[in-house]
Prior knowledge:
Oligomer: single chain
Distance between the termini: 36 Å
Number of strands: 5
Strand order of the largest sheet: 3-2-1-4-5
Amino acid sequence: GRDFWISAAALKHIDNYVISTRAAAVHRAQAEGRYDDLTDIKIVDRVDKSRRVHFTTRTGTTGTVPLDGLDWRDRLKFYITTDRGLEPWMLWLSEAGLPLPYRSWEEVFSTANKRCQTLAVDIHCHPHMLRHSFALRMLVTLIYAHERKMGITAAERREYRLIFGDPWVLVQTLLGHANLETTRNCYLEPVSGLQVD
Length: 197
């Protein structure tokens, strides 16, 4: 598994999506019997302390799989039973109420890019750019906090690193890189350039 950090404001927007747009999509899909037509789904019974998903298929077969071992294709097939009926386990849904394959996000961004271009707004973005921008911003912020904290001595900086960790290691963890050098190779040059600026 990975740790994901999210701001309270972003979490509020997600909650609003869940109780409005997502709920409407689920309701439409339920009313149209869209979930009833799905045969190859797994209904989540529970997730245990060892992060294993216990599920039941439509035919009544039970099984268990490691949560962290599920790929995007697996996750599309997991559903939950709520007081409103069956619905996808995944958060992000299409207007039809079905889970969005991760490649759909490329199309979402492509459509937004075209809309910006039509409006003469000079912005072009894809999902990986957001990950890269977040990592770079987090790294610069952490390095600034470590290196430029007003009035702190070298000894205090060492103590700060012992308490809060090395900025590079924290960003490596956030990105899920197995090797610290991967993180350094991706971000050392941009960070050095920003520090010079």
